[in-house]
Specification:
Blueprint: E1 12-13, E2 20-21, E3 33-39, H1 45-53, H2 55-60, E4 64-70, H3 73-82, E5 87-90, H4 92-101, E6 107-116, E7 118-122, E8 137-140, H5 146-157, E9 172-175, H6 181-186, E10 192-196, H7 199-205, E11 209-213, E12 224-231, H8 232-237, H9 239-258, H10 260-275, H11 281-289, E13 291-293, H12 299-312, H13 327-335
Parallel strand pairs: 3-4, 3-5, 8-9, 8-10
Antiparallel strand pairs: 1-2, 5-12, 6-12, 6-13, 7-10, 7-11
Helix pairs in contact: 1-9, 1-10, 3-4, 5-12, 7-11, 9-10, 9-13
Keywords: Cell inner membrane, Cell membrane, Membrane, Signal, Transport
Family: Belongs to the bacterial solute-binding protein SsuA/TauA family.
Protein name: Aliphatic sulfonate ABC transporter substrate-binding protein
């Protein structure tokens, strides 16, 4: 986990000249501050852009938005459970794991953020077709993470066998941090990777070929890759703050979808602030094109992804009833004259 980013003056230039940061103005809501967690990853671009452009702070008024950047879902779930993060952008597998391990007591999914942006990229000299994947070494970011589950499910659909925990079998599943996956691909220690953006486009820039876009495996090419989650304790104590962050997210997604080029630039600028370097053009442009930004949590696909983890042997059959509370989001949407979203029968009763 990286240190929290600094928040400077509303409408003023940041000290390093990298762009604008924002401060609280006006009367605070029921909390003086809210800490928002996300990954330095384009599939979390709603958070990146909302932070960069001040959409969250504008809706929070006098409540200060603070930020923490994470490298992996389990550490963000731990921070939510510990109360050091209040609201976070998170992938479906860690959200399900966090919910089930706490017997449904620690977090809830309160909104959608992104769909797509996951690809199987391979070395075209070693893998030319789906059949060639058998016997090869394919990386995923982490044991049991969202992409790991997706790869294991796809392998099973090919009729091949892999031990989920060891990664050994007809395909060698190599759990490799996204930060070092391009190096592993370059030196030949892996033959391909099932990874989110921008790692997938980094591999393409290294000479890789997209063998499969995960979107093609889902109805309407839609599946959840990032949701918004909240600590149940914070949701109960500060519903007005949660609603304000959701308004900020809805405003951000609307701006992203109507200003795709400017939004891509804003996301990359915030990545540079958070990680120390922007993404190169030959990575950020194709990566951005493959991600859809949506307020819809795509709840039915989360249920399917949980089923895939069960089938892979990584998760006992979970009771996901209550993992969603979409009432605050749907209230925001109705205020905008929009129809709310369905929780696929997994909402708070």
């Amino acid at each position: 986990m990286l240190a929290a980013t600094a928040c400077l003056g509303y409408g003023s230039q940041a000290a390093d000249g990298a762009g604008e940061e924002f401060k609280a103005e006006g009367e605070p809501l029921s909390a003086d501050s809210v800490t928002i967690g996300y990954f330095g990853n384009l599939t979390h671009a709603t958070a990146l852009v909302g932070h960069r452009k001040g959409f969250f702070q504008k809706e929070l008024k006098g409540t200060q938005a603070k930020y923490q950047i994470f490298n992996a879902g389990p550490s963000e779930v731990e921070a939510l459970n510990a109360g050091s993060v209040d609201i976070g952008w998170l992938g479906p597998s860690p959200a399900v794991n966090g919910f089930t391990k706490s017997d449904g007591k620690d977090l809830r999914i309160i909104g959608g953020s992104a769909s797509g942006g996951v690809k199987l990229v391979v070395n075209p000299k070693k893998i030319r077709s789906t059949a060639d994947v058998k016997g090869k070494k394919i990386a995923t970011p982490q044991l049991g993470n969202t992409q790991d589950v997706a790869l294991l499910n796809w392998i099973a659909r090919q009729g091949w066998s892999v031990d989920a925990n060891s990664g050994k079998g007809d395909v060698s599943v190599v759990r490799t941090d996204n930060k070092i996956t391009p190096d592993a691909f370059r030196n030949g220690s892996i033959d391909g990777a099932w990874v989110p953006e921008p790692t997938a486009s980094r591999l393409v820039a290294e000479g890789g070929k997209v063998l499969l876009d995960e979107s093609d495996l889902w109805p309407d090419k839609k599946f959840v890759i990032t949701n918004i989650v909240v600590s149940q304790k914070f949701l109960k104590a500060h519903p007005d703050v949660v609603e304000a962050v959701l308004r900020g997210s809805v405003r951000t997604n609307a701006w992203i979808n109507s200003h795709r080029t400017a939004a891509r630039a804003a996301a990359n600028e915030q990545l540079a602030r958070d990680t120390g370097a922007p993404l190169p053009t030959d990575v950020v442009e194709p990566a951005w094109k493959s991600i859809r930004f949506t307020d819809d949590p795509l709840a039915g696909t989360l249920r399917d992804e949980a089923d895939h983890a069960v089938e892979a042997g990584l998760l006992d059959r979970p009771d996901l009833t209550g993992i969603y509370d979409l009432k605050p989001l749907n209230k925001v949407l109705r205020t905008d004259g929009r129809t709310g979203f369905d929780d696929a029968g997994l909402g708070v009763k």
